[in-house]
Design goal:
The complex is a heterodimer of chains A (317) and B (334). With 317 residues, chain A is mainly α. Helices cover 73% and strands 2% of the residues of chain A. In chain A, α2 packs across α3 and α2 crosses α13. In chain A, 44% of the residues are buried. Chain B has 13 helices and no strands. Chain B starts with a helix and ends with a helix. Classes of the chains: A mainly alpha (317), B mainly alpha (334). At the A-B interface, α4, α5, α10 and α13 of A face α1, α6, α7, α8 and α10 of B.
Amino acid sequence: MEEKSNLNGKITYNKSKKLNGYTSIIRSSLATLLKNNKSKVGFILLLSIVTFSIIGIFYTPYNPNAYLFKFSQPPNFVNLLGTTGYGQDVFSELLGGAAPTLMIAFSVGLLGTLIAVLVGIFAGFTSKTTNAVINAFINIFLVIPGVLLIMLFGTYFLGIHQNLGYLPTIIILVITGWAFGARTFRSITLSIVKRDFILSSILIGESKMSIIMRQIMRAIMPVIVSNFFFTSMYGAMGLTFIEYLGVGNVEQVNWGTMLYWAINYEAYLTGAWWWILPPSIMISMLMFSLILLNFGLDEMANPSLRVFKKKKRDKNE
Amino acid sequence: MKIPIKYIIKKITLFFAVFMGAITINFVLPRLMPGNPAQVVYSEILKSGGSGISPVYLNQLEVEYGISKAPIYIQYFQYLDNLFHGNLGISIAFFPEPVSTILAQALPWTLFLVISSITISFFIGNRLGRYAGINRNTGKDLAIDLFSMFMAAFPAFVLAFIILDLFSVYGRLFPIGGAYAINVNEGLNIPFIISVLYHAFLPALTIMLISLGGWVLGMRNNIIPSLNSDFINYSENLGFKKYQIKNIAYRNAILPNMTGFAMSIGLSTSGVIIEESIFSYPGVGMYMITAINSLDYPLIQGIFLMVVIAVLVGNLAVDILYGFMDPRIRQEGE
């Protein structure tokens, strides 16, 4: 990035160059990420799941909500993945339910990471007392088991005859899911702030905002992305929990409610594997792809995990 | 060994701060919600055609739920006073059983399940991760990684149903539910212990499989840099044997996982609650599902509080243990 010092000693940046800098960083990190075999597989997997969900928005073979077929049919040519115990087409449900599931997972990931970054960096920059208070606050949310809080919320909503729709679901999952990331960002910021290059930036007279955006954000970028993946995983997992407990809106079609109905119908006892396995496998594939991508990120942030061709120790082992 | 007093004091202070926070959340949440539990239950009874119900009953319900019209700070002190005396109210679903009695029955089973399965998965996971890290980028490494990742990604309750189905319903190898057989006497005798272990096997196995992934991957990613570090090179040159070097690297790599251990107690408690309801294990989870279905607010709040306290105490214990294990933390506290 090109830096120019004007007479007042303030640093100004060339706007277009700055933008260019960020895009080139993103491009080069993506390239590094895709060099890793595991994250390449993860990326392709995630891309195909996203494509699957986009198709599901515009087209499903049958109406996923309609009870059109015979009950509990095993897979055949009319119903690719058979039918549910209530006569819906499993494949249509799977296709149509993909988009809401991904939407919830990624919005939880996005919002949770955003809050985590804001809280974490703020805690790292403020006075010692505020930092301690925020730390205690983070710990409260970290320790309280998320599922219990969901149950607590969910029953109150049930009490006033309301289900957790998609928006309350996202809010609850963000409330219970942001703390883990905030803890990480707080400790990373604390360690970065103490280093010399930040001190010299402060001495030059660079504003706090600029230090955060220009130096700290860049240093924690891989961690932010990795946290996004983990929080998204938490979102997907949390959605299935909410639906399983029956506190969500079970009339909506997503992978969580599919599992809810399958389990309520005791599909695992009647041997209707085509009903219970596809949503489970899709959920685990989604999580799997995110874990794999995270593997690559780990190796990017921590070069000692990378594979080096010739090494003395490898021979000894 | 020097006792890290400052560190311990710091941890205990944090413990009380978080504890008060959790108690306050438990107090505030119900009061934020529109309507109150008594009204909900009252209208529920009216709807199902309950005859002979009068507003007097509503008042009675409100008294039972501990709902008062007093100013909020007085309510708060009353709530703290009740908590201090172990008075958590009376359950609705299991009327007239007090919540504290139910919890006293259920909590030991849950703790038993959580502690045993998490400890086992911690040891197995670390061993597997160590093995994968030492043989990294081989077929074995990949197999272990993929297996543990897949397990971590699979929805927990579906896995529980599949295991229950395979081993209990079709296989008939393990019991379908309960914590021990009916024909054994409760107490410290061998048939009882065997029966308890036999009944706990499947739920523990499920929790173990789910939580394995985190340990394996964490260990693997910790031990690889540890094996590459200078002190390992140095010990290699000093002529340490191979297994000794692996042990040195292992002992350094296990520390981050120890912190994770404290946190996973909280996280896995959530999972355990679900597992218990599926395996009909008489722990907190089974009561929780009943409580949700019957809108048993006092019981839900009691469970919430108990689990949070248990998790906090577990965290504190591990934190203090950690202070003894890692000399760097001991010094930091001095």
